[in-house]
Task: inverse folding
């Protein structure tokens, strides 16, 4: 059925509406657009008359609208690293749940230490609790790589970083890795972040570190020293 409708649309047979974006016109069948999107159902129900069959759609590119219309007629959409974010946003805007799901699956498959935080942030703007949870778990499970290679890691807020390092599901072989990640985060903007050292250091399981590492790497760290005595109790309590 979908392939027949697609062929009819390409041949401009039995099309009963025109979707126009920035002057670019797309022939389409109302019933197929209504089937894939509540947005189009509402649009046609409210504005469609025998004298009004052309609909100007704002705030979307012609390319994204082309993909949405083709998806409505074929059930398929080509998702790539280059178009996934814009396509997700357009599908979310027009309530095309099928494309949102395809984009979500693609983003999940593409999760990496370099992009998991960006995808996690993306789901703060575009509600997707499933993808948000998976991106967060990926971050926890690959924390060492994320902290070492992700530029977005350096842009985390102190509060978000504290919640990450205190999480019981944080996957690290040694607690030293947590301290070194915090050290990298603070060193990115030391003057602004030195006041966050105590908050973050209080979430490090110092008791799991060897006393030699604490003495040589933590207490002797110039960033730790720069905040004075406020960190001393947390550090010394971990020493035997």
Result:
């Amino acid at each position: 059925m979908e392939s027949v409708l697609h062929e009819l649309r390409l041949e401009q047979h039995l099309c009963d509406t025109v979707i126009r974006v920035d002057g670019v016109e797309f022939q389409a069948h109302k019933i197929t657009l209504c089937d894939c999107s509540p947005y189009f159902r509402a649009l046609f129900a409210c504005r469609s008359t025998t004298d009004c069959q052309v609909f100007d759609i704002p705030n979307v590119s012609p390319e994204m609208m082309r993909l949405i219309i083709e998806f409505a007629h074929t059930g398929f959409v080509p998702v790539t690293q280059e178009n996934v974010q814009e396509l997700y946003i357009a599908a979310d805007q027009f309530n095309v749940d099928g494309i949102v799901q395809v984009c979500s699956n693609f983003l999940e498959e593409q999760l990496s230490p370099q992009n998991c935080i960006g995808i996690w942030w993306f789901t703060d703007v575009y509600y997707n609790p499933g993808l948000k949870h998976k991106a967060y778990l990926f971050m926890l499970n690959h924390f060492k790589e994320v902290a070492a290679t992700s530029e977005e890691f350096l842009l985390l807020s102190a509060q978000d970083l504290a919640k990450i390092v205190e999480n019981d599901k944080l996957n690290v072989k040694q607690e030293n890795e947590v301290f070194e990640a915090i050290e990298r985060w603070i060193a990115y903007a030391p003057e602004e972040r030195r006041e966050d050292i105590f908050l973050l250091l209080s979430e490090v399981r110092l008791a799991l570190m060897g006393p030699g590492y604490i003495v040589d790497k933590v207490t002797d760290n110039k960033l730790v020293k720069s905040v004075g005595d406020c960190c001393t109790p947390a550090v010394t309590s971990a020493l035997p």
Observations:
- The chain is about 60% helix and 5% strand.
- Confidence is low (pLDDT under 50) at residues 230-240.
- The longest strand covers residues 17-21.
